[in-house]
Amino acid sequence: MYSLALVTERVNIIRRSVKRLKLLAEMPKDEFCNSEDAIDIAENRLRRALEALFDLGRHMLVKSGAGIPSDYRSVIRILQESSLLPEDYANKITGLAGYRNRLIHDYNKVTPEELYHILQTRLVDLELFCQYVVEHVQ
Q1: Alpha-carbon torsion, ordered 13, 17, 20, 24, to 10 deg
Q2: Which residue, among 94, 110, 88, 4, has the nearest Cα to 54 in the 3D structure?
Q3: How far is the C-alpha of 8 from the C-alpha of 134, rounded, in Å?
Q4: DSSP label at 2?
Q5: pTM above 0.70, yes or no
């Protein structure tokens, strides 16, 4: 079935990234937006967390026989269709697939302000993903 080593490793990557991102989220917006180090760390940790999330989702789908996703959005859609994620949550995080692509392919267009907004509003989504995965695997 699932590789528990892979599941554990990817969940830990997400959780460690979120922990670091939460520290950055405590910074005042102006300080964050003017700190090249904070911006670099936020981009790196957010990208790592999203890569781990989609990698883990893909692993769960393939190993459970639910399907082989064709792209990052379909990872979330098939996880929801397979009852691994609640529909309302899946609908909420589908956009993270697009943001993952933005971080990778349009990195030059990512602004400090949008990163800061994500730190303030979307970290809970990453934590919930880990919660759903761990509950499902146990």
Answers
A1: 180
A2: 94
A3: 9
A4: -
A5: yes
Contact status, residue 35 vs residue 119, Cβ threshold 8 Å: no
Within 8 A by CB and 6+ apart from 44, the residues are none
Domains of the chain listed by start with CATH number: 4-137 (1.20.120.580)
- Residue 59 reports pLDDT greater than 90: yes
- Name residue 117's amino acid: H
Q: What amino acid is encoded at 46 in this protein?
A: L
What are 16-49's pLDDT values in tens digits? 999 999 999 999 999 999 999 999 999 999 999 9
Other CB atoms within 10 Å distance of the CB of residue 109? 9
- Round to whole Å and give the CA distance between 108 and 79: 31
pLDDT band at 1 (very low <50, low <70, confident <90, very high): confident
d(CA 56, CA 46) in angstroms, rounded, equals 15
